[in-house]
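Bench log. Compound arrived from synthesis this morning; before running ITC I wanted a structural hypothesis for how zinc ion sits in the protein. Inputs:
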Amino acid sequence: MESLEELKGRIEALRSLFSDVKLMTDDETPAETASSFSSTMSDEVKDSNPYSRLMALKRMGIVQNYEKIRDYTVAIVGVGGVGSVTAEMLTRCGIGKLLLFDYDKVELANMNRMFYMPQQAGTYKVEAAAKTLNFINPTVDIKSFNMNITTVENYETFQKELLHGSLTGGRVDLVLSCVDNYEGRMTINQACNELGLPWFESGVSENAVSGHIQFINPGETACFACAPPLIVASSVDEKTLKKDGVCAASLPTTMAIVAGFLVQNVLKKLLNFGEVSHYLGYNAMKDHFPRMKLLPNTSCSDTNCIKQQEEYKEKVANQVVDESLKVSEKESAVVHEDNIYGIELVHDGAASKDDDYSAGDGVKYSLPQTSSNVEGPVVSDTNQSVDDLRNVMNNLNNL
Ligand SMILES: [Zn+2]
């Protein structure tokens, strides 16, 4: 039998072990961390200012009003491999408010990805995420919803939150889809078409080596129903894949790259700098990044999309398009207030073109099906024979 002293020693050892665990899981932010953050962003250049590097974007002439990020609310649907990293990046950037939607639990099988820790296995993703994010930046307002948005009653709550969930009780500024299934994407598409809310779609292929992001501004750009991805067209049922025990592959690299592209474009959209990509693909096998513009389908199956298209046309005709919502067509000039390093921007006039490479290779699983909506060279059907065409080509060459 152990002596009293030995038992006391063991209690002490257990106590210290539990205090370590508590530090890692407690939702209470350490007081010294909380006091370093203030709700207003300081541009003071000092090591103890958590925003000094972000506010330096103003001094470098990239962003005019970085502190505006404190006013924005972003809804993230799905906090898995892409969504959790997206939420962490936005939290580190000092976003005003985040709404997190998910109903899954953290599993040990998720540990090949970023963000979640093994000790969080078995807990709900939105709850685990909210705790960690609160640790990282306690001034970000984080509201989590442990629910599946595709059910009828939850859809109502989802829509209500999108309409009234912002910091000021109004509409959220952007919705980000980080779900891994078609049903979830179509639900977000339906809600955003109904409400006229801009959103970003994102995805990673099941073989883990390609991904994409897509910006959707109802009425102006193709919605998710206008141009469904190839995976849907090829009738591959994602649920069947899971049920058969043939799980999808995933890499932390591809997930983090897609999350990085997503947040980069969210920042550009919200803070009004650079160009927002309509559609940006990623092929890891060749490190290829196809980028294209997708126009709405005038015979889209979603009636609200058609309605939004008509309203957008009217707005353009009356020249009342909200410039902050319009996808920037022109390149923004980057002006440095003081160029102490003497760095010059050189425009790459003759960018190299991968002639032997088609965009399809990079976005096999995610390229929208309706290619006629993709802006670019259009080849029309012809009844002419090859010889006729060859003659035309020769005539043109002789001009
Ligand atoms: Zn549509």
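What the model suggests: The pocket of zinc ion is lined by residues 223, 225-226, 296-297, 300, 302, 305 (CB under 6 Å). The mean pLDDT is 80.
ITC booked for Thursday regardless.
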